[in-house]
């Protein structure tokens, strides 16, 4: 398979038995059989088609910010689009490739005096991941500003789709169900004074840095907000702040975060998530639904 992968992308873009903890924000995860980092849309299409032809498992990693990879790793081909990270302006739009960080796109919008992406100034995920989960913060979300996207289908076909075709709702889209690989997003914004945009971003950055445990690796906010509640408040009121399993800990700074405090394994991290869910359910009768994705195999 290595030889066939290097026929459709260069050798430097194919890694064998690569530790995925090197590619996730939580610093968790076993090995990928093959980790590929294509540099063009055509290479993405060719890799998808190759996986289909060879009937080999295929997984899209994104930049690993809202993701836990299990300790057993991932079989087959894992694709990371971090090398597709360009962005540019067209009139009052910013077009960004899926591997670009959404936080960088928000700063590009600031430089262009374009309003609408301020909410994303503290979101660590990629553009592709932001569309995948309709990322949002501080009252804004991707669906508010997304105009269209370019995607590759499960069959390797390139499509241009309006935002409405992605069925964006609270922390969800139809991208996983359709099996789309996002290549590019077009954000429709509005002209505004750069000083006003910067003031909002500075305020949101202060709120984030003062409240979130950025000093440790984490997957960000672990749980979706349950209707009528706040996940962090429920966890805090369950006296779970500081609760630790192995090297994983419920943050003492923000109860909605679980941090990799001391070389945690993915198993410890997942066990702590489940413990939090069961405790909150027992105390308050509320089901905490995960916002973070868990993929990969259990260790043998």
Shape: globular
Please identify the top-level CATH class of the largest domain: Alpha Beta
Q: Biggest β-sheet, characterized?
A: 5 strands, antiparallel
- Give the class from helix and strand content and strand pairing: alpha+beta
Radius of gyration using CA atoms only: 19 Å
- Average per-residue pLDDT, rounded, comes to 95
CATH architecture of the largest domain: 2-Layer Sandwich
How much helix is in the residues? 25-40%
Strand content: 25-35%
- Unreliable spans: none
CATH-derived topology of the largest domain: Uridine Diphospho-n-acetylenolpyruvylglucosamine Reductase, domain 3
What gap, in angstroms, lies between the N and C termini?
Answer: 24 Å
Q: How many beta-strand runs? A: 19
Order of strands, widest sheet: 6-7-13-11-12
Tally of separate helices: 8
The ordered string of helix (H) and strand (E) elements is HEEHEEEEEHEHEEEEHEEHEHEEEHE
Catalytic activity: UDP-N-acetyl-alpha-D-muramate + NADP(+) = UDP-N-acetyl-3-O-(1-carboxyvinyl)-alpha-D-glucosamine + NADPH + H(+)
Protein name: UDP-N-acetylenolpyruvoylglucosamine reductase
GO molecular function: FAD binding; UDP-N-acetylmuramate dehydrogenase activity
Family: Belongs to the MurB family.
């Amino acid at each position: 398979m290595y030889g066939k992968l290097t026929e459709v992308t260069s050798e430097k873009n194919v890694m064998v038995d690569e530790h995925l903890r090197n590619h996730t924000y939580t610093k968790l995860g076993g090995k990928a059989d093959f980790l590929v980092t294509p540099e063009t849309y055509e290479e993405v299409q060719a890799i998808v088609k190759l996986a289909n032809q060879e009937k080999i498992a295929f997984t899209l990693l994104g930049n690993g910010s809202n993701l836990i990879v299990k300790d057993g790793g991932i079989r087959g081909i894992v694709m990371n689009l971090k090398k597709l990270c360009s962005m540019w302006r067209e009139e009052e739009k910013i077009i960004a490739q899926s591997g670009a960080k959404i936080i960088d796109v928000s700063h590009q919008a600031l430089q262009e005096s374009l309003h609408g992406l301020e909410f994303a100034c503290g979101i660590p995920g990629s553009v592709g991941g932001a569309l995948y989960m309709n990322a949002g913060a501080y009252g804004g979300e991707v669906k508010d500003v997304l105009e269209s996207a370019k995607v590759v289908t499960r069959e390797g076909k390139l499509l241009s789709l309006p935002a409405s075709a992605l069925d964006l709702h609270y922390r969800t889209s139809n991208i996983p169900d359709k099996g789309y690989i996002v290549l590019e997003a077009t954000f429709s914004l509005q002209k505004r004074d750069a000083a006003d945009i910067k003031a909002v971003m500075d305020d949101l950055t202060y709120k984030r840095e003062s409240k979130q445990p950025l000093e440790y690796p984490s997957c960000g906010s672990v749980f979706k907000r349950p209707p009528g509640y706040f996940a962090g408040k429920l966890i805090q009121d369950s006296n779970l702040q500081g609760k630790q399993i192995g090297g994983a800990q419920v943050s003492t700074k923000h109860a909605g975060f679980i941090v990799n405090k001391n070389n945690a394994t993915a198993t410890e991290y997942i066990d702590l998530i489940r413990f939090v869910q069961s405790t909150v359910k027992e105390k308050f009768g509320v089901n905490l639904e995960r916002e973070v994705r868990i993929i990969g195999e259990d260790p043998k």
